[in-house]
Amino acid sequence: MNSIKRNKQLILDYINALSGHEKTTERLLKYNADRGLIGYIQFIDSVFPAYEVFVEEMMAEGDKVIVRARFRGRHEGTIMGFEATHRVIEYPFVVRYQIKDDKIINSWVVADNLVLAEAVGMKSIRPNTAQRANNTEQQ
């Protein structure tokens, strides 16, 4: 198996091992050497216990694998200042993994935090039109 296929398989195995399960340090360290990602995953798992990830698209080149996926979990903890709603939350995200010696060594996550914030209780974002009017008048 070439390295690109091996890296993609590692990420699939990793996601399948975590999705729907508690993200223990032991389970994470089997696939992951990126301490920042491990901490992030454990925090998210404390807010959305045993959350699931559904892969929608995966691409790989060299030592990198990019995954476009969908997150689903029950909101059971505090996030962004919002207490648990006990609702099932879904939102899209993209993550880029860098792999070395069959372990994730670096990652970069982009999530739709506006969708997440609205799902956990944010009502709306209103532009501060009064501030804009004051700035215009002062000019």
Computed CA radius of gyration, to the nearest angstrom? 19 Å
The main β sheet shows up as: 4 strands, antiparallel
In spatial order, strands of the major sheet run 1-2-3-4
The fraction of residues assigned to DSSP E strands is: 25-35%
The name of the CATH architecture is Roll
The computed structural class is alpha+beta
How many helices in DSSP terms? 5
In quaternary terms, these chains amount to single chain
Low-confidence stretches: none
Q: Distance between termini?
A: 65 Å
Helix content: 25-40%
Global mean pLDDT: 89
The H/E string reads HHHEEEEHH
CATH T-level fold name: Nuclear Transport Factor 2, Chain: A
Broad CATH class: Alpha Beta
Form type: globular
Total beta strand runs: 4
Q: What is the total domain count?
A: 1
Give an overview of the whole structure.
- This protein is of the alpha+beta class and 139 residues long.
- The protein has one domain (3-138): Nuclear Transport Factor 2, Chain: A, CATH 3.10.450.
- 39% of the residues lie in helices and 31% in strands.
- The chain contains 5 helices and 4 strands; from the N terminus they run αααββββαα.
- It has helices at 3-18, 25-31, 35-47, 113-120, 129-138, and strands at residues 52-61, 64-74, 88-100, 103-111.
- A 4-stranded antiparallel sheet has the order 1-2-3-4.
- The longest helix has 16 residues, at 3-18.
- The model has no long low-confidence stretch (mean pLDDT 89).
